[in-house]
Each structure stands twice: as C-alpha cells, then as structure tokens.
Specification:
9 helices, Rossmann fold, 7 strands, disordered C terminus, alpha/beta
Length: 281
Amino acid sequence: MDSDVFRAGLLNGQVAIVSGGGSGFGRATALELASLGATVVICGRREEPLQQTVAMDSSGRVDAQLCDIREEDQIAALVDGALERHGRIDLLVNNAGGQFLAPAEDITPKGFRTVIRLNVEGTWLMTHAVATRAMIPAGSGKVLSITLTPRNGMPGMAHSSAARAAVENLMKVLSIEWARYGIKLNAIAAGQFATDTFMAKYPAVMVDGAASTVPLGRLGKAEEIAWLIAYLASPAGDFISGAILNIDGARDNWFGTWPPTALTDTQGRPLAEARRDDAPA
C-alpha cells in the first residue's frame, strides 16, 4: 500500500510503537507509517483486531504484541521485545485509551479511577519505558499522545476531560525535561471522527448530530490523524515539540452556529451587516 500524501520511503529505517493498533486511529496510523517505510509494532489487549491490522498491511512491516498499557511488566516486555527484534525505537504513538459517556454525578470513584489509570497512567508508563529504555540512550526520539477536543470542557466526559488535560500537560513538561536528550513530545487533540467506535457505540442522536458541531461541516477521517502523525514523524516535524495540535475542523474554537440566530435580522443577515446596509449615505 502506498501513501496518498507522502513520498515513498519517507520513514525508511524508523521503528514505531503504536498502542491501540487494532482499530481506529491506531490501525490507520500503523498502516500509514508502514507504507512509508517504517517498521511498526502495534499493541493492544485483544489478539484478533491486532491480527486484522497486520493482515491489512501489504508491506510486511507491521507486527503485533498483546500488551495492557496499565501493566508495567507487559510494557517492559513490549519495549524490550521491540528493541531485541529491531534495535531501536524512534516513535511512540500513545493512542490506546478509553472512556464512557456519563453525567458527572453518575461517575463512580471506580469508573473515574479506571479512566484515569488507562489514559494517564498508561500513557505515562508507556512513555517512561520507551524513553528510558530506548530514546534517552539513543539521544533521539518522538512521542505523540492522542487527546481530545473540545479542550474547554466536554459535558458527559468529566473523567476523560481531566485525563486528557493531564496527558497534554505531561507532554509539555517532558518536552522541556527531555529536550536535552533530543526527544520531542507533542499531543494531538482529535475532534469528532467517524471511527467505528464512535459510530457504533455512542448514542444515535449524538452521532447523527456530530457533524453539525464542526465548523467545516463533517466528521474527520482516521487517515487524517495518521497523516498528521506521519508528518510529525518525518524530518518536517523535527522542530515541533511541546505543542498541542488540534485536528478537529475548528470545533475547539466554536461556540455555536454562525451567525447566531439572536444576532441576525428577520432576513437572516448578521445585525452588524444589516446596520451597515441601513446606515444613511
């Protein structure tokens, strides 16, 4: 499979680990990186979807390993195995995560801890293991962590909003501390995307109305996340670190339909425009 965007061989020689590689962003990212010449190790908790991703790769550069990112021993085995087989790790994509839709008052302490442990602690454990075992000794590397927009608060997602904010600030801090080792760390804040999980597991009314909350008028495609990750993995991303890159069709900046109905005249024109038209010559 060739990339639709980048030149062949762009990432020749690179080795990447992509968590949550059995579906969605992780699958699209693994296939895109492999198509550009990278060797990709995907991980997740279930064997079947991981092997489906491997089967979709025509390059032979994707392999899979079971790993629960909440378990230190499994992460150590994943990282050490990648180093034994491939000798290096140039890129870590922290894509694995999860949450559930619930009003804040209905989130139990157990539910909150589960989301924090998966999204924050899991990201930290993966990042720390890859950095200390591979990137710091090598004096280079890139870490990209997937978070969410809108970043000014997501009703029904108090636990996930807290977790993703923590991850974003973790990337910022580590981008300063580990700059001396040549490691670049960034967060990618994704908006509403037409992933299998979103389309199948969220309420229909939410799915049906999602595109209307995006100024560009559509949902994102998983491939668009993969293209951004490939760009950042390439030499073009070598001076980008400590950033939070929104990829959400301007959703993070929006407060509703423009122009707002309350600010239009009876003909639907913005009031400021109507006043200009009605002003005396």
